[in-house]
Amino acid sequence: MDKRLFTLVGALMLLALGVPQSHAGLVNDIPSCYAASHFTFSSPPPDRLLYVLIDQATPLSPALQKSVVDNINHALGPATKFVIAEFSRTSNNHYLQVLHTGIIESPMTPNERNNVPVNALGGFDNCMRDQAFFAIHMADTTAQQILQSATGAPNQSNDILLALKTVAPVIAQDPARQKVLFLVSNGFENSSFAHFASGTFNPEQM
């Protein structure tokens, strides 16, 4: 059973890498180890939310790109949901797009492990290890793709405040107890946020 489970989860993860762009990010793109194991119970909802919002018009040096990825890695762990999104009005006229959403599940409680056959535990533990690796790889590569394809175009048409206004309800409605918004941008001086900070922002013009 362990070998079949490991093979099944590996195949599911490979399929997840090929999720069509129109569907990516709308649902959890990380296969569940609990579902793959056919357990009668599931992982509790994630306790933490990491929402990464990257300005696609912001070019960063290789060192800063590495810093962004390192910070994402540091924030990921068990019981964590992550969202990788980009925004830019200067790139193909799209504004905000969620590229991937993933959940790293919680490990079983001691009581749950005591009620699972011993021969099923090894496969589940391997799956959870691979799930964490797969999730981090997905988050890293997605963020790197956004950062490396930054247009470097002027940010005048970017509206960072509107991007924050768009994601705020999503973050507020998420049931996670701890929530982190990681915004990557250098365009504040060219956005309506600058007018907001200076007292000249008119919300009716949004």
From TrEMBL:
Protein name according to UniProt: Uncharacterized protein
